Model the fold of this input.
Amino acid sequence: MMTDIEIAQSVEMKPITEIAKTAGVDDKYLEQYGKYKAKVDYSLLKESNRKDGKLVLVTAITPTPAGEGKTTTTIGLADGMKRIGKNVMVALREPSLGPVFGIKGGAAGGGWAQVVPMEDINLHFTGDFHAIGAANNLLAAMLDNHIYQGNALNIDPRRITWKRCVDMNDRQLRFVTDGLGGRVNGVPREDGYDITVASEIMAVFCLASSIADLKERLSRIVVAYTYDEKPVTAGQLGAVGAMAALLKDALKPNLVQTLEGTPAFVHGGPFANIAHGCNSVIATRMAMKLGDYAITEAGFGADLGAEKFLDIKCRMAGLTPSAVVVVATVRALKMHGGVAKTELNSENLEALGKGLPNLLRHVSNIRNVYKLPCVVAVNRFPTDTDAEIEQIIRECRELGVNVVLSNVWAEGGKGGEELAREVVRLCEEEKGDFTYSYELDGTIEEKIEAIVKKVYGGDGVSFLPAAKKQIAQLTALGFDKCPVCMAKTQYSFSDDATKLGAPEGFTVTVRNVKVSAGAGCVVALTGDIMTMPGLPKVPAAERIDVDENGKISGLF
Done:
């Protein structure tokens, strides 16, 4: 069987100028990065009079090691739509180098439903993440330099909240002491690194609607507090202009193609268990401006990615999805029902029945909390039996939701045609009544509680003393009317990764609450969420190689 990279390398790509023509992008907006990648100038959004297309969100059940195939489904659905004659665009996140070299492998889809050139997309791409890391670290350098040069803003070095970042899984950098070696080398202090995709610059970059909005958001970033507990911002440090200059080209969405030549934007990539987990607002808006249908995805399960897409991104950008696809696999649902990964190839209706509530809760949230039309896409594996598939169809029908079998991994767009037709039907015939899971005028505690009770299915929230103190401080500073971004494990509806399926009777413990003032969110940290992952015992990097002709192998 061919690997993903072998499949990707077997298909002849079209020149990006041809893809741009298909997408309706005039040459004056196109900035080519070689033959198969380009950036599209954001001025297209201001200058186009075309009516926006319909927005379709692809999300998934709670992830397991068995895999769900959310990106693969997103790409295959778009290719399926193209095959049935629709004008369609894709909008995806960019992969982070950390997971690419770590445990996850690539993030450009799989099988015959991929975006290409997949090697470029997974490695460096057009340099967006490097620009974001440079802007982050410029701010860190200017902050420490300000303290070294006399500290006119009265910053308390013990209350610096801004970290440096690097786009790599490197646990060694989580906690460091820097500024050592004598007075000329800075002020000694405890410090640390985040992975670039957890940086607030990434969240700001993905939520900004223009250069002006980007600069406004950058200026609001809180980097530290003074000795008398006043926030210090990037604007006060005079860093905004230089940071925006580093980000100005990165802010232009990246245009690539699927294996079947469907135009795709791949742009931005905040982590979904820490940040809001969606591609950039500019790329999504551009996909809607150019296509009659824009297919996008949100990270991890619907309790994380979709919740943040709907409650944060859609609210801030004024977007309303027309339909939602919830991706599931029989294998993953059996894992939620207690089956070990090694036993997934055998029919097990009992375990499937125990795991199904996970899918049903996600579906119910989309339908009943957010009030949006929904379809379940089951990624069919050869080992799935008819009885298992029928059980899923039956249980979802009781919720009034259709189930469509998806075979895009093996067949590309051809295997996504049935799903494409159902999504078009939802967009054209079913009208949602889009509602957020909470309103902004509640307290920080009330918003967190609404998410935990309505979306996670929990009983309530326990706030640790540190979190209570932080909430009081943030409320006093006027940040209590911001949306909430939950930092939580992706492996469970609860904050305990071992609670699979659809757990009940649990409380979520909030240990820290901080503000991402540039992104415009209050971040609630639960469980053992880390903003700098580590590499596994056998990193994916060990499999990756390149030959004398520059051909890469082993990348997923």
